[in-house]
């Protein structure tokens, strides 16, 4: 009897320790997020404390030149434009190809083919992003230049395509998991009504897995927005508002890399501007995350 009580007490203590560790992990993640927000807010306010920086110029100007001596301009929109252009190119490449690949793996591929192709795709996620940057410079850009001389050594198209290749495994893997989570009974019912495999895939399975697919899309887009190493290597360093994929652009993350190379003094307005850009980037990715959460709640399908 005494041994049984000790066993129960030991199990209870063990469960309490596990719960405490899980609570500590959750609290730590909240603490890290809160610390990031506090630091970004503090340093961003320090940036706007400089006499030559105003909110009106930051959000109302269309020129970003913080390193030109006395002629400094701090309009954020050229960096936002470059970021959105690269993101749009990456999304246009990765989202349809990723979804088509996911449908093939889920609905058409044999178990043997799936066991080979899916790990091969996920290997792409483990490649360092700097490798994608050099791939863009040495492979994608020369290919684009053979198509048309409009593409220079640095351009948004090359950076966008390399970023799209980088986020492709996210779209494929998460979308395929969502498609395979659709109950078999829905497929069997559609086949019983005379639907072809294509009809079942497009009209039954994809709509049923829509929330997971949209979440995969938004996660991939967020990853493309925050990409750091591909864009400085392939997109260039000219901050300008343009929709031309052959143009050289600068993204927000590329500017952060430029500043933290050490050329700007840590107490100057140029260095402080990096925190304002980082705060803007944080707001953009946070908004995408919130849209993803709303989409999951709005379109989530539950099956018995």
Order of secondary-structure elements? HHEEHHHHHHHHHH
CATH topology of the largest domain: MetI-like fold
Strand content: under 5%
Count of beta strands: 2
Principal-axes geometry comes out as globular
Instruction: Characterize the quaternary organization of these chains.
Output: single chain
Structurally, how many domains make up the residues?
2
CATH architecture heading of the largest domain: Orthogonal Bundle
Mean pLDDT: 85
Number of distinct helices? 12
What does this structure look like?
This protein has helices spanning 2-48, 55-60, 77-108, 111-123, 129-147, 156-180, 184-192, 197-208, 210-225, 230-234, 252-259, 269-299, and strands spanning 64-65, 73-74. It has a two-stranded antiparallel sheet. The chain is 73% helix and 1% strand. The relative contact order is 0.14. A hairpin with a 7-residue loop joins strand 1 (64-65) and strand 2 (73-74). Helix 6 runs antiparallel to helix 9 and helix 9 runs antiparallel to helix 12. The protein has 304 residues and is mainly α. It folds into 2 domains: 2-49; 73-299, Orthogonal Bundle (MetI-like fold), CATH 1.10.3720.10.
């Amino acid at each position: 009897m005494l041994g049984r009580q000790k066993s129960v007490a030991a199990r209870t203590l063990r469960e309490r320790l596990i719960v405490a560790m899980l609570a500590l992990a959750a609290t730590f993640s909240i603490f890290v997020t809160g610390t990031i927000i506090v630091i970004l807010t503090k340093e961003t306010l320090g940036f706007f404390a400089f006499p030559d920086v105003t909110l009106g110029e930051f959000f109302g100007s269309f020129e970003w030149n913080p390193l030109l001596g006395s002629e400094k301009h701090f309009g954020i929109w050229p960096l936002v434009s470059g970021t959105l252009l690269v993101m749009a190119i990456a999304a246009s490449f990765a989202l349809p190809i990723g979804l088509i690949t996911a449908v093939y793996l889920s609905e058409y591929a044999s178990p043997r083919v799936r066991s080979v192709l899916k790990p091969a795709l996920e290997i792409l996620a483990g490649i360092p992003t700097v490798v994608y940057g050099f791939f863009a410079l040495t492979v994608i850009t020369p290919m684009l230049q053979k198509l048309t001389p409009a593409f220079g050594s640095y351009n948004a198209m090359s950076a966008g395509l390399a970023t799209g290749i980088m986020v492709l495994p996210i779209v494929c893997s998460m979308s395929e998991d969502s498609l395979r989570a659709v109950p078999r009974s829905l497929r069997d019912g559609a086949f019983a009504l005379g639907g072809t495999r294509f009809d079942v895939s497009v009209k039954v399975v994809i709509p049923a897995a829509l929330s997971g697919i949209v979440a995969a899309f938004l996660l991939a887009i967020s990853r493309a927005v925050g990409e750091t190493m591909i864009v400085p290597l392939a997109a260039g360093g000219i901050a300008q508002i343009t929709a031309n994929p052959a143009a050289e652009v600068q993204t927000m993350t590329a500017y952060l890399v430029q500043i933290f190379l050490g050329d700007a003094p840590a107490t100057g307005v140029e260095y402080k501007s990096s925190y304002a850009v980082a705060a803007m980037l944080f707001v953009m990715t946070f908004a995408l995350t919130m849209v993803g959460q709303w989409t999951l709640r709005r379109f989530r399908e539950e099956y018995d």
